[in-house]
Write a structure and sequence with these properties.
By secondary structure, the chain is mainly alpha-helical. It has three domains: 123 residues, no CATH class; 193 residues, Beta-clip-like, CATH 2.170.270.10; 169 residues, no CATH class. The protein has 21 helices and 14 strands. A three-stranded antiparallel sheet has the order 5-13-12, with no helix packed on it. The protein has a three-stranded antiparallel sheet with strand order 6-10-9. A two-stranded antiparallel sheet has the order 1-2. β7 and β8 form a beta hairpin. α4 crosses α6, α5 packs antiparallel against α6 and α13 runs antiparallel to α17. The longest helix has 25 residues. It is globular and about 85 Å long. The structure holds S-adenosylmethionine. The site of S-adenosylmethionine (SAM) has 16 residues, from β4 and β11. The site of S-adenosylmethionine has 16 residues, from β4 and β11.
């Protein structure tokens, strides 16, 4: 029986946080937007759901079972609907071409209106099934927690119509996932991602002269080198050298972060610092309702993480924690928008990876497509970061499982770019670890000359060359990466940078320089360089010369299993950019 949404979503529209089922007066405590359960449960769940669906066999089994149940019920319903996939695709295209209100009351009204229309159409019977499903689908597009709404639909909408909604969300998600590289990166970057064998490369979309800036890119996350973080000489957010008179900091911050301006401090807080190092509750009061965990435990968790960073002098754990925190902050931002009616763009400060007006991809959608090589993951590191999350909101630790942490750390280690100012510094402390245990970043100046590291989602697609066509420059003395052409580049040319210092050092023969850079690449990125320079130099080696053993047989980099399967066309992928639904796998 259809339970009316006005009752079910006791939202007095989207802004009210509590969802109740009026039919039996049961509160869906797991689905309250206001409660801590939302923050800790549904919030983490919403972000985590897609990952689980792709990677957890048990979870997928459950979903498939659930889907079979729905299909069975739908099949039993008479008369069966005769709506083709093409019709559903056309319906989605129509809905996607419609404008949706940006924020606040209009969006709320749009949601309620479509739910209302959907209900009325349901009452007219199956002849109106498609328009009904379309209305529910429209509502889904603007609802902040689509997973949650799908679950509500499942319990309330007739099976036939629910099945249509599920199929539409599947088709839409598949189209978004397979169309990703049509939208990424945004045209303003002047580059596109193209396939080259099983790799993706970055290609120029127009001609450039030597010295031209091809694009500028902000890091999705960045972390100062530990010595500078401790010294307080550089801005924790943008890395700018701080004039002490302008320095801004806050009390009760175990990291003792110092910023060059109040603006940087605010951005850092919004993106991740609040979650990782500040004592205030993560949720605004309207959503928190006093359910935040006790501040003492929270501070302890944060202090333990700050101590860990100080002791290990590492930046990669910080990059991982900041990325996870930024995802959480983004979800909280969306919920906050519903309550405060603020524009999310200012809350979320999201990077412009995709053309404005294009589909919305979540940070996780961008990150999951990055390549990596498995890196060792210290157990203590996972625990200490999980400690920060679990002590912030119950359930948030599920967000960073051991497995997920391993993948994130490996991706950060593989893709981070070294931020260097004016050709690099000379005073970076020398690390005592074995070379294979030292943190590396991609930088033509050498990691030992950087001031910090950043993950740049677009620039992660730059392949390495020992005679590169571009170089990353940090012209503003900040983390903003300017990709500069090192020579004239034609539209369609592959863009490359040097992951390592490829210059021939004093006292080095050309052969020694070649060996050094090839060893560094093999050690850090696990591939044998096949660039034109290495190939030419290799071909002109004296007869009988034996290629050195680099300790790597074949390129060891890989993609996440789900992305790999999807890229090879085996499994229709879904994306968290789109409402989640039971998946369409049949195995
Ligand atoms: C150009 S791709 C860009 C990464 C992209 N995310 C992807 O999915 O393929 C980078 C990968 O290509 C390989 N690669 C880059 N430069 C190379 C080189 N000079 N020689 C051999 N392999 C290289 C490495 O496996 C590296 O991970």
């Amino acid at each position: 029986m259809l339970i009316t949404f006005c009752h079910l979503l006791d939202l007095s529209s989207l802004s009210s946080p509590v969802i109740t089922m009026s039919a039996n007066s049961r509160t869906w405590s797991a689905l309250t937007i206001a409660g801590i359960t939302v923050a800790g449960g549904v919030l983490a769940y919403a972000v985590y759901f897609d990952y689980k669906r792709r990677n957890d066999t048990e979870f997928r089994k459950k979903l498939r079972k659930e889907k079979k149940r729905v299909q069975k019920a739908a099949a039993a319903a008479k008369p069966s609907l005769n709506i083709t996939t093409e019709e559903l695709r056309a319906a989605i295209a129509k809905i996607r071409s419609e404008e949706i209100p940006d924020i606040g009351p209009e969006r709320e009204a749009y949601f309620m209106q479509n739910v209302g229309i959907g209900e009325q159409l349901c009452a007219q019977g199956l002849a109106s099934a498609l328009p009904a499903a379309m209305s529910f689908f429209r509502a889904l597009r603007v609802y902040p927690s689509p997973v949650e709404l799908i679950m509500i639909y499942q319990k309330t909408v007739p099976d036939e119509i629910f099945k249509l909604i599920v199929e539409m969300t599947n088709l839409d998600a598949q189209a978004l996932a397979s169309g990703y590289y049509n939208f990424f990166p945004a045209k303003s970057f002047n580059v596109s991602v193209q396939d080259q064998g099983n790799k993706k490369i970055l290609v120029a979309e127009k001609d450039f002269d030597a010295g031209d800036v091809i694009y500028t890119e902000e890091p999705v996350v960045a972390a100062l080198d530990p010595d500078l973080q401790e010294a307080g000489t550089n801005c924790t957010h943008c890395f700018r050298l701080i004039h002490q008179a302008d320095a801004v900091s806050s009390d009760n911050d175990p990291l003792h972060a110092v910023y060059c301006s109040a603006e940087c401090q605010a951005k850092s807080k919004l993106q991740s610092h609040h979650c990782l190092f500040l004592p205030e509750p993560l949720l605004p009061p309207e959503l928190d309702q006093g359910q935040s965990l006790n501040t003492e435990a929270r501070s302890k968790g944060q202090q333990a993480f700050a101590d860990y960073l100080k002791e290990t002098k590492k930046t990669h754990p910080m990059l991982v924690a900041r990325f996870a925190a930024r995802q959480i902050a983004t979800e909280i931002g969306k919920l906050t928008e519903q309550v405060t009616k603020q524009d999310t763009s200012s809350i979320l400060d999201l990077p412009n990876y995709v053309e404005k007006g294009g589909p919305e991809y979540a940070l996780g959608d961008h990150f999951e497509r990055l390549r990596y090589v498995d890196a060792p993951v210290p157990e203590e590191e996972t625990k200490v970061i999980q400690g920060v999350f679990s002590n912030s909101l119950p359930g948030l630790d599920q967000f960073l499982t051991d497995e997920r942490h391993g993948i994130m750390l490996s991706k950060v280690a593989y893709n981070a770019i070294g931020v260097t100012f004016s050709g690099g510094r000379d005073n970076r402390p020398v690390f005592q670890e074995r070379p294979e245990d030292q943190e590396r970043t991609r930088t033509p100046y050498g990691t030992n000359r950087q001031v910090g590291s950043g993950v740049y989602i677009v620039s992660a697609y730059l392949g390495h060359s020992c005679d590169p066509s571009t170089k990353p420059a940090f012209k503003n003395g900040t983390t903003t990466l300017h990709l500069v052409a090192t020579r004239p580049i034609k539209k369609g040319d592959e863009l490359t940078m040097s992951y390592v210092d490829v210059t021939q050092h004093e006292n080095e023969t050309p052969e020694e320089a070649r060996r050094r850079r090839r060893f560094e690449l093999a050690r850090g990125w696990r591939f044998k360089c096949e660039c034109a320079k290495c190939t030419t130099e290799g071909a002109s080696a004296p007869e009988g010369a034996v290629e050195e053993d680099l300790g790597v047989e074949k390129d060891e980099s890989r993609l996440e299993a789900s992305v790999e399967r999807f890229s090879s066309g085996q499994v229709p992928e879904q994306t968290s950019a789109s409402p989640s639904a039971p998946e369409s796998e049949t195995d």
